[in-house]
Amino acid sequence: MRWPYDELKKKARYLFTGYTGILVQAMLICAAAYLAASYISMSASASSVIFLLISAITDLFCQMLTAGRYGMMLDCGRSGQIKVSDVFACFQRQPDKLLIVNIIIGAIRLLIFYLADSILRLLAVAPVPDAAFIIITILVYGAALAAYFCVSMSFALVYYLFFDHPKWSSMELLRYSREMMYGYKWQLFKIKFSFIGWLALSVLSFGIGLLWVIPYMDLTVTRFYEETFCSEKR
Amino acid sequence: MNTDNSDNLGFDGNEEEYVRPDPIRRNEGLEKASVILGIFALFSSMIFYLSLPLGALAIITALLSRGNGKVKGRGRTGIIIGTVALSASVAFTGYTVALYMTNTEYRESVKNLVDYYMERYGLEPRPSAEQDPSQGQGGGLAEILQEMSEKAQRQLGESESSQTAPPDNNDGAPVPDIVPDASPAPAPAPAADVEGGIFT
User: Fold this and answer.
1) Which residue range forms the structural domain that includes residue B135?
2) How far is CA B137 from CA A36, B107, B113, in A?
3) Of A29, A157, A164, A188, which alpha carbon lies 20 to 30 A from A46's?
4) Which chain A residues are within 8 Å of B20, Cβ to Cβ?
5) Which of B155, B171, B190 is the last residue of a domain?
6) Residues B67, A13: C-beta atoms closer than 8 Å
């Protein structure tokens, strides 16, 4: 039996074997940045506002690195000329545009969970039986999670479009990504979900395996973008 | 999007549209890494926290080393060794836990081992379950570490207080110089019951 998207993954692995060292080094830089960001956020937990502010700033910084990594993934399959310093490419290439995009996406995600939390706070005051409250909590958080995934899938192409269409504004990037992903969200979700076994193995390796698995995953998604949205253009 | 189930033989369904298949590309470095990691995992299969990540990494690297081909040669060896190491590690750990839960002698020997190290580092020996039934199966590693850290903090506090000058006594008497005791603390003598434990 062959798994769906096998060809896509095969092409991603083909590229991965050619650029393993550079991709893993780039991932290592991102992982180090994420670890440092989480350490800074945790150590500055004096008040919730400061914590939120520092978390947002560090997260934005890490998102810039992630966007740089996505650019590397695109170049892997195109020019083939990539280097580790490409991770920092977004700091030189219209960083304001990417910052606005990341702030909007982050705000939407935050709003989803804030709404879910507010609903549950209102219900906690109301005279609701315990069993019903548990069920409602599960349903509300399930809905919030589904909405979160929906938003993530809708804006999954933003970084690719940022590199392919440098003249587009932040709002255009968001709008076109949402429009292009219309009808493809479930497909992308299935592609990402097919890596569940790899992620389980990475958990067993205490997260070290993610250094290899995440670039492979991102390369597969990049191939999905290239073959779904770029093949006609070429 | 080309995600159909046909084999990648070079034809995309239509003979006129010949698609050049990608040449098979493997990563020999990852293959070697998978075998080495697998061997390390196998030899350390008694150490759960070492063997588990090494075995998982061996499998990950072996699977990624195949490129767009199939897993062959050293990659396959890496997967096999990694899987065996993971299974052995889980089996050893499961067996040890089961033995601890069921075998009283083994449990006692583990307790003796813990007591030995507690005596060695000058900690209070823990009363056994027979002596103090409220203690249950004895303390965990966290409690032992907490006791050790408390003792270290106490010692640090004592040494700091001995090095700092004492407060003024306001009676005009000269304050004697405090010479910190540089001699190391005498090692605690091993208890008699520890001597009769598993190390004799």
Assistant:
1) 104-155
2) 40, 9, 14
3) A29
4) none
5) B155
6) yes
